[in-house]
Amino acid sequence: MEEEAGVRRWIVDITRWRPSPDQFDAAAALLPSHERPAVARFVKEDDRKRALVSRLLQYSLVHHVLRIPLHQINICRTPEGKPYLKNCSAFPNFNFNTSHQGDYVGIASEPICLVGLDIVSISKPQGETTTEFISNFSSYLTDHEWNCIVRAGTSCEVLTEFYRYWCLKEAFVKAMGAGVGFGLHRLEFHHEHWTDISIHIDGEVTKKWGFWLFKLDEMHLASIAKGHPEGAVSSYKKALSTVSVTEEQLNSALESPEEAFTLWTVEQLTESME
């Protein structure tokens, strides 16, 4: 189907990239000059790598999918920080979302639906128990979610269960283009063994969103949220071509199977941009 051409799921393992300062600068030089300060502001090398790879993914994907010359790609950001493409696209609502945590940086794109991506690293809390750690986030969880988490089993299973819910909430908020102030406690997820995942918003179930969870490796999870463009916050709606999507288009997008992520190296990304 023509619209599936706009669907991408790309991921990079940044631990495999160990650039010299010159190699790092050469990769950064592929970005438009206004993007580079956002990379350079980070002190830690890993943070700089994540910021750079996130932007390389955006420009490479737009170039790859839409065939727009790199120097003509115009990526802007809403006041909430959601990136969007200013260029016209062959797709009704081409949009993308990036995420990075731990070893991975990823990007997901969709031609019609809103898309949100979140990656989490299941790191054991330092200096506190798992219960103490997740208690810090209890106000963002519903009673139902909290009960599912604390009953998950071992402390390792409890931690993983918490991150699954957290990952899904973040992917939804990012798909909408909402800022950090969005009330995550308004969202409640239900599932059958983490398939058939559905969302209740303010207690009401909605059929206009779909969710998928992926295990990237033993320590990292990723989630994808796809939904109706009418769910976008107002600042992001203005960036979309249209918020009217037919029921058939929506159902087709939500019912299509989610493919695994394609693993790219930084070298492949930079080569695709040169």
TrEMBL record:
<dbReference type="Pfam" id="PF22624">
    <property type="entry name" value="AASDHPPT_N"/>
</dbReference>
<dbReference type="InterPro" id="IPR037143">
    <property type="entry name" value="4-PPantetheinyl_Trfase_dom_sf"/>
</dbReference>
<feature type="domain" description="4'-phosphopantetheinyl transferase">
    <location>
        <begin position="115"/>
        <end position="217"/>
    </location>
</feature>
<dbReference type="GO" id="GO:0008897">
    <property type="term" value="F:holo-[acyl-carrier-protein] synthase activity"/>
</dbReference>
<protein>
    <recommendedName>
        <fullName>holo-[acyl-carrier-protein] synthase</fullName>
        <ecNumber>2.7.8.7</ecNumber>
    </recommendedName>
</protein>
<dbReference type="InterPro" id="IPR050559">
    <property type="entry name" value="P-Pant_transferase_sf"/>
</dbReference>
<dbReference type="InterPro" id="IPR055066">
    <property type="entry name" value="AASDHPPT_N"/>
</dbReference>
<dbReference type="Pfam" id="PF01648">
    <property type="entry name" value="ACPS"/>
</dbReference>
<dbReference type="InterPro" id="IPR008278">
    <property type="entry name" value="4-PPantetheinyl_Trfase_dom"/>
</dbReference>
<keyword id="KW-0808">Transferase</keyword>
<feature type="domain" description="4'-phosphopantetheinyl transferase N-terminal">
    <location>
        <begin position="16"/>
        <end position="111"/>
    </location>
</feature>
